[in-house]
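Appendix B. Raw example, untouched.
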Amino acid sequence: MANVTDLQTKYSKLAQEYSKLRAQNQVLKKGVVDEQANSASLKEQLKQRDQSLRKQEQEMDSLSFRNQQLAKRVELLQEELAASEAKGKKGKSKGDSPSQHGLQTQSVFDEDLQKKIEENERLHIQFYEADERHKKTEAELRERLEKLEKDAEQHHGVVDGLTTKYAETIERLQSDKARLEVKAQTLEREAKECRMRTEDCQQQLRRCQSELNRQVKQSSSVIQEKVPFNDTSEYLQSVHCAAFQLKARDVAGQAMSFIQDLVAALLNIHSYTEQRVHIYPLDSSIETISPLNQKFSQYLHENAAYVRPLEDSFLQLYQSITEDTVTVLETVVKLKNFSDNFSSYTHFLQKILPYQLKSLEEECEAPLCTAALSAKNQELQSDIKRVTSVFEKLQNYINLLALPSVRQDAMPHSNTSAVFTQLAACLHSLHDAIKEMSKHYNQKADIERELPTVTQKLCTTTECLLGSLGSLTSCTGKIATFFSNNLDFFTSSGYSPRGSTAALNPVQAESMLANKKKATAYIQAVKKPQSVPYREALSNRRILTSSTESREGLTQQVQQSQEKIARLEQEKEHWLLEAQLGKVRLEKENQRIAELEAQLAAALGGSPNSQTAAAGALTQGHEEAAAELKAAEKEPTLCTSLVLLRDRSVGDEESREQLIKSHYMARVGELTTQLQISDSKAVHFHSECRALAKRLAIAEKSRETFSEEVKLANQNITRLQDELATTKRSYEDQLSMMSDHLCSMNETLSKQREEIDTLKMGSKGNAKKNKGR
């Protein structure tokens, strides 16, 4: 059936090519018909020109004949003039009246002769100009006719070549169609035979199933009646491992994030490559790119149809791995879908590989391509081939891993470990190949920036493509590292039966899950506490006892520490009060000493030295008192206590302690209130920060969306501006051509009017002369 679909696709492609060629043939035929019509019109114009030329030749003949007549008449007039002059000489003696009459006749003849000479000169000039104009027009028309004949011959040659080509194509398509029809009939016969064999096999399967059901019922009845319970078989020795399932789901989740990054990077690379094909080496907005690049761009535009299914199929695989399932290669059915999608993407890479190589060759053939740029393009060609071959290896290994879910006896466990090891090595090879390709592309971009014809659009697209290659490099590196780190988990046999190296088949997995569900339902029905193995219970008891003892010891230590802290706080308060009382006593002593010094100074009275000493003592006492006051101001609580003590210096010691205690309690209450307010503010600020962080993330996403929209809008604006400039330039060219044409037409009309006026004047003069005669 695959061959039939391939043949149908090939036939459809050939039909499309035939329709395209047929449309081109119609266009060429239309062009040939238009050229033939133009040639016919030009021939008609040439005929008209010949007719006008013949008319002008006839006029010239008539004018030359008229000129000859006039010349003969002039000669006759000259002869008559000579004769009259001779007669005049002879008859001089005869009187004045005949001589006067002869003079008048001579003057009339002279005037008529002068007019005829001027008219003859003017006609000669008109004849010469008309002859030159006719020769020029005839040369132009002959040149144009030769050019049109050459174009017509070329068009006829193109039409003949296309006709022969289409005839060959039609014959080949008809032969292919006949061959395909024969093959389709053969395949239909084979399909009928296969359906018949399938029906026979289904009937045999039904008979086997009924026989097996009968044997199972008989065996189960015998087992229930005769055989006791025996759990020594390998079939019942596999145990469901929740930890293994959680580990498998965690690993699948990490792989899912890596696959999403890989898909995003591949989509960006293909999209930016498509944009680059439309920009370099030829800009599609200015001129048409080559058919090969057009086909390459069309294939790249379809990349999402091959890349997106990778993420979707792996997401289905991730969702199928839960805590209540058994995850082995034999039971993971969704891995086959991922393998098929990966195979289709690999085929897509193989399909676009020749176009990628040809596109790089076209870049090398560009006129401004340097030797260094050509070398980098060759290196990129080898890198692309290497990446495609590595993807093909990955496809083979993934197909091998997906095979046990289709065929249970496809691959033993030892071969599975070898496949996982080779897959890890292949992932590292993919990372190295993409890293090398990214390095060469960076070097190529640096060389391209130095070219004089590089546009800003090409630089932007190249930067985006380099960023996508960098993200793909980091993503493949993460995948290779992740797979190497979890290689032991992939190669471990988490569900193989105890005492056996065979893998778990789907039937055993189903029975295991059914037993687990039955056990869970039984425990929930009995409502007994969950049982724990004896050894685990002993270890838990030891841990609990040691933790209880350690907790009691820690509790005692905490209590002792708290008592010690409280005692130290009390001692601290006691010594603070003692320090305050000592300061009060020191002040009183200083005052008393100052009073005694004053009394002593007053008693001494007369000696200046004694007065100076007394004054120095007083100054020193005042300085000490000031220093103590400044030290007391630095501690607000001590200062407050001193004030209280000074105000109540007469009171007893108990009242002072009570006042100090109440002051400190009030201070503690204030600090507690401030602490609570600070905690509430901190909680409020934390919630606000979280909300702002969420809003920031949403704003970043919207900014990225808007930036993409702005980029698309800028691209559309650039494209529209280019189209507008092209349209404007074409209109300006057309207007200039029309203006030139109008100028030439105006000149022609003015010349024709002048000729008409000249001819009219000449005809009027001739008419007058004829009337005068």
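End of appendix B.
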